[in-house]
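Bench notes, afternoon.
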Amino acid sequence: MRAMVGVLAVGMIALAGCSDKPAEQSAAASAPASTAATSAAPSPTPSAAPVATPAAADVIAYTVVQPKTLLGRAPATESAIKEQGAKVGSAWGTKESKVSGAYGTTGKKNVILFAASTADLTDPAAFVEQVSLQGFSKYTFHPVDPGMRGSARCADASTAATPTTVCLWADQYATGVIYFFFSAPADAERSLGQARAEIEVDKNK
């Protein structure tokens, strides 16, 4: 049994004015542990065809990476954005491997911050719900199309200076959070699937 514990919450920054705001208190969120699969007993029928065991390279499994670009945005160079990206990464704490990143510029108003980690979940929807309630309780989340496997929720996290949407996702392989700054919820939700596909990739490729 593998337990996963996430420390999940990050303060927002008014990026348009590059003025820092205190980070929110982190909240712990635990996910149900996965159970080991039991193997079926061999068939007693001599004529039964053998079941082929897939080679390790044929088993699809996913991991998380820090992409060279994210939704066409280059890594951020502005210190305020990079600092906030580091805060997002440090707040998204797990026992598994994790990555984080900051992309875009305030000038182009296309900033994205993300953090993601590998996971071993049996109930991604329950994980996303728990994280949204415990780690991001000040926002009102609603279910959205995850774009890939699993479950996802997004919420309006705007400040007075900066429209912002925050999205959470989870599947049996990974969990993550993305902040879409200067982005309306509808636009962020449409972009979530592609962003996930660039962050969560087939480890065999």
